[in-house]
Amino acid sequence: MNILIAADSFKGSCSARQVTDTIERAAKNVIPDVTITKIPVADGGEGTVDALVAAMKGTKVSVPAHDPLGRPITAEYGLLPDGSAVIETAAASGLTLLKPEERDALHASTFGTGELIRHALEHRVKKIILGLGGSATTDGGAGLAGALGISFLDKDGKELEPGGVHLRELASISTDGLLREAAGCEFLVACDVKNHLCGPLGAAAVFGPQKGADEEQVKILDAALAHYAAVLKDKLHCAAADTDGSGAAGGLLCGILPYFPVTICSGIDLVLDLTDFDEHVKQADLVITGEGRIDFQSALGKVPVGVAERAKKVRNVPVVAIAGAKGDGCETLYDFGIDAIFDTVPGVMSLEDVMSHAEENLLNTAENVLRLFQIGNIFTF
Questions:
Q1: Quick one: which of 124, 107, 103 has its CA closest to 162?
Q2: Has residue 380 been placed in a domain?
């Protein structure tokens, strides 16, 4: 029997690598002669670097950078065997880097993400895979572009201060200082939302509140981003704000679209393509996937549904999802190619106990899943 394990992390308890390793251990406990293929995966957000580095035998690079408020940190990105880099916006510009009371949508900057990109470019990387999830910023990617040498100037020719609020002062943009090594670089961007930069479904209105913006600050930011979009169109002849996904990560795409070739794609599809999922699933008798919580939102570009849909398309192989918890509407996922869903919590437990026993509970659940297949004689072992 051939089993393909393609699972996301159980956030807060197990990495994607730990999840796939644990399910492999369970499978071998039940079926000693089983053939296992493991693909740690992610949806393009947090965990994408870890998943791709693990699945593709890449390496991690640590870089001095700055967090969304400009404080020094050390952040990581991945280098893959083909010479490309994989970078998460959240690594240096993420919401998780700030305490709740520190969230500042007006002034948070993507400069740190730009520092990671700059480091990769200075080390001859010509293809960058960029995940947009989890940002604390609403600066239209101006901080990122600034780290690469783009200058955003006010009417007096003075460089703007960091943060989306200052984009309302933007008068001109200079590309003269763009990093020389940036020539010829292309971006592959993982983005699963269609929101445009501005308006009622834009970066400020939809995502600003979770980044600390109140109602008045949302209005300020939306107006600043609209002005920024107008200057991009007027000075650089780039209608970046009209691009699907330009509202993701606080408008980060607008910090790269005017200066680089960019391809935008679904995060989970990108990861599955890079890890040769289609070839692996052709040999599989069963696919096991999973994530920390499965509910109706899992249909919105998350790992289990992305894996299931691709598996059904390629080979119509059975797909089982294992989750740390099941939430409202998880039964709707049966319409997306998942054949069975199991949660790992064995009984009434505190959240602390669930998190501390996550690997043990996953192992037991995965073993029971495999025993169920044996009992039902679904496969010949």
A1: 107
A2: no
CB atoms within 10 A of CB 83: 11
On whether residue 29 sits in a domain, the answer given is yes
The number of beta carbons lying within 10 Å of the beta carbon of residue 177 is 11
DSSP state of 102: G
Q: Which two tokens stand for residue 131?
A: 């995940």
Do residues 254 and 150 both lie within one domain?
A: yes
Report pTM.
0.87
Distance from C-alpha of 27 to C-alpha of 36, rounded to nearest angstrom: 8
Q: Which two tokens stand for residue 70?
A: 């400009």
Between CA 284 and CA 27 the distance in angstroms is 14
Beta bridge partners of 290: 322
What strands, in cross-sheet order, belong to the sheet with 127-131?
59-66, 72-79, 85-88, 127-131, 186-190, 262-265
CA distance 351 to 299: 25
Task: Check whether residue 167 and residue 256 sit in a common domain.
Answer: yes
Same domain, 364 and 228: no
Tens of pLDDT along 72-129? 999 999 999 999 999 999 999 999 999 999 999 999 999 999 999 999 999 999 999 9
Residue numbers of the domain that contains 328: 2-40+276-375
Q: How many other C-beta atoms lie within 10 A of the C-beta of residue 364?
A: 15
Angle at 326 (CA atoms; ends 323, 329), nearest 5 degrees: 130
- Considering the domain architecture, whether residues 281 and 192 belong to the same structural domain is answered as no
Tens-place pLDDT, residues 198-222: 999 999 999 999 999 999 999 999 9
CA distances from 310 to 24, 123, 319 (A): 21, 35, 10
The reply to whether 381 falls in a domain is no
Q: Could you tell me the two tokens for 207? A: 């995502």
Q: What is the CA radius of gyration of the chain?
A: 22
The phi, psi pair for 344, rounded to 5°, reads -100, -5
